[in-house]
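Supplementary Note 3. Input sequence used for the single-chain structure prediction.
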Amino acid sequence: MEYKKELEDLAINTIRLLSVDAVQKANSGHPGMPMGAAPMGHVLFTKFMHYNPKDAHWPNRDRFILSAGHGCMLQYSLLYLTGYNLTLDDIKKFRQLHSKTAGHPEYGLTDGIDVTTGPLGQGFANGVGFAIGQKHLAARFNKPGFDLFDYKIYVICSDGDMMEGVTAEAASLAGHLELGNLIYLYDDNHISIEGNTGIAFTENVAQRFEAYGWHVQIVEDGNDVNAIAIAVRNAQAETQKPSLIKIRTQIAYGSPNKVNTAGAHGSPLGEEEVKLVKKFFGFDPSKFFHVPKEVLTYYRSIGEKGTAVAEKWQELFNQYKAQFPDLALAYETGLNGQLPEGWQAKLPTFEGDEEIATRQASGKVLNALAAYLPGLIGGSADLAPSTDTNLKEFTSFSSENRNGRNFHFGVREHAMGCALNGMALTKGVIPYGATFLIFSEYMRPAIRLAAIMKINPIFIFTHDSIGLGEDGTTHQPVEQLISLRSIPNITLIRPGDANETSQAWRVALEHQTGPVILVLTRQGLPVIDQQKYAKASELEKGAYVLSDVENPELILIGTGSELSIVLAVQGKLSKEGIAARVVSMPSWELFEKQSAEYKESVFPKSLKNRLAVEAGSTLGWHKYVTDDGDIIGMKGFGASAPAADLFNFYGITVAHVVERAKVLVGKL
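The predicted structure, written as discrete structure tokens, is reproduced below.
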């Protein structure tokens, strides 16, 4: 692999100075990281990675993740230079309103950005999900002579990534699963915001990753293009272990006064220092955003080679399609975000007097659908027996079995959430992951980023209230429902019985604009009679009139395990001459998408007596009950006791709701 020193040095320095100028013009950003890491970015984009600037979503492209997202001008520079849909004007608008060059890389905003990064550790852990996605696609679709999916995942990460706890979780999982399609380049510059990392970070990173089961190499000089290239080639050859290449770099290399200092980490260099940097690299200090013609020609030619590789892959896929039409159709269906025809008919319905927990109903739905939705894969954070998420007719994904569809993420909730995001960004994969609702706290960064990206992992959270009982205060979620509902682009569904749970899965699988959170009970709930009351399919509207009466005096609103309570309350009140409408409200977000006319039909403005019951924080419910209404819920934490005793103590019972309803209508 020939190193054209003069041209390539000029190309690398062009990346550095584009980054410097963009940060200086914006008066905001991180110039130091791109200055130090430019050689490794250059090596990846010119010598190893397969990508197509003319089709940023080409299926077998190598994925590139800049986990050190603060250094995004490195990525933007490479995308512009190699011919993606990014102009020099876009570079000049770095960090400005409505520009394509945001302050950290954002998926969906700019071609060539495979995942939104920035919060450190997230991109690192997303890479594990991308690697799982590739292994799943290869196991499902590759055939002899047709290696459709053999792409690799390249990640540039930083000292900050290495300090974040989620990196440890993800690296441990990657080593265990022997994800040899991961190649991580560690920009080891020893600088963070507070100064030299030695003030807080002195571990031996190489030995740590070796202990995780990674293949580790060390490059002593971050400017040694040949050494970096050799290390990447070695990493490609290591197909069993994930690879870490620890590259010693100098932050703000080329800056006489700010090299190897925290001053270049999160602030522009300053106009005078920029001039000195340009002189150091032999550029004209009076020119800004200068791209030598030969550099642009060089990088664009690299991009054009990628286009040719992508076209060759398409030819291979066309041959595959002729030989394996059913598999090709299945892939194309998933690629387009579609589901196989007729899958909805496989959704189970429930009837009878036996109570069933919604977590158990969810498990029955998953297993009823699994054979018809081969892209549906997932697991739990060591809680599959409790969350009912095991696909009983399928094996487990492991280092020996890439066909497995059950995932054992271990007690690594945060890494699980990040991996699900990487899997969701793999077209043809429908990922789900489960844990207890209380442990959603460990997953918040990943959930939030999924919402920002508007991608579609399915998060399953069971044991949704004080109803989990004896495990007590530490395990009983109270504030988690309103906390999750507050995240934009989230669709949270808390079904009230088994049939609503089945419909919740339908909505989750059809949803295209953000993550869906299914919140499920540990305790058994009555199955609501589908002949007597409104159909559970109405769940798709977020709230619906489950049971109505003539001239109602109040509205009873129930969600989750409390729906059956308010339904029983309706019957009690009827015997005392009080007419109450029952509204099931499993999803605020779905309800808010309905028309004003529909909302008025469920909650008429003239009917102000409303009583909401939910075994969680009462925050947020005032929007639906109004000032004239009432809310029964949790005002503090729970306690350790059997579930029935807890519901009785906190007043989430038929008798107490009847009493509050009578007060509300002035008949107590």
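The CA atoms of residues 613 and 632 lie 5 Å apart. The chain has three domains: 5-308, 343-519, 537-664.
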